[in-house]
Amino acid sequence: MAMHRLNLLCLTMCLLTHAVQAQHLGHSEYQNDTYQYIEQNGLVVLEAEHFATQHQTTQRKWFRFSQASPPHPFADSDTLHYANASGGQYIELLPDTRINHFDPLVRGENFSNIPGKVAVLSYPVWFETPGKYYVWARAFSTGSEDNGVHVGLNGEWPASGQRLQWCRGKHQWTWSSAQRTKDNHCGEANTITLDIDRPGLHTINLSMREDGVELDAIALTKDANYHPDEQVLVPTLAPSVSLPHKTELLGIRNYTRIFYAQSDFAVTADTQTKRLSYRTNISRRDAGIRHITRVRKGRGNFPNSNTTWSVTSR
Ligand SMILES: [Ca+2]
Ligand SMILES: [Ca+2]
Ligand SMILES: [Ca+2]
Fold first, then answer.
1. Separation CA 230–CA 166 (nearest Å)
2. How far is the CA of 210 from the centre of ligand 2 (A)?
């Protein structure tokens, strides 16, 4: 893959984020460049509130909550649950209009059995170890219609990531890796998985199944027997970053990891014309609508398409 060949490591260009505007909740623009997640010894731990981007928010949207959050204006059947949330923060998918089984079910609005359709979150993660990962998430459920989400990878939604479900552990933060099935609505334990096919950057995705879901943290592990119990886990963060935000690809070779870029790209240098060609393929780095980066390619204008183009080298 292009990124693997080039060993581009940009710890900063990546997480130029889509601002999740929630001023009425007292949140400012999300600066997630300080949260660069990596796999460590077969384990990834993410704070759910540290998503890089959010898409498809017309019907429902994830909001961050903490002790400092003022009352919010959305339909919601319960109170805030920041106590015992890791990092003191969590996210909730609001408004929550389907509280119980008797409330109207509106597909594509307060329920989606199809993943990737409503309120899609992205979490870029750098993996050293490919393979099968068991996905756990920590949720706070107070009812029967706020306890299911979908898990995806690189903008795709494999069957093994759909319908992550919580049943036990109501009214407290509870980890689950159970996939809801037709015959078991509570889900089969340890069955939500993602296959990381190669080392490098991958994007973990979440999307709505039921509105009102509250999420605190997400964990991915290669250990089939792992169980976080009711623990707060320590996030697996990359070491601190020294390189500045990058706004163009010139000098990109100094960066060896890209957590977020608008596109995949390869680079080849033509020493005779002293031009660098970047081949882009917008497919793997994120899900949903883009326009979420300010990266400028060299001295040229932003390309109008994702086909081959070039920029002038220094
Ligand atoms: Ca709620
Ligand atoms: Ca609900
Ligand atoms: Ca949290």
1. 13
2. 5
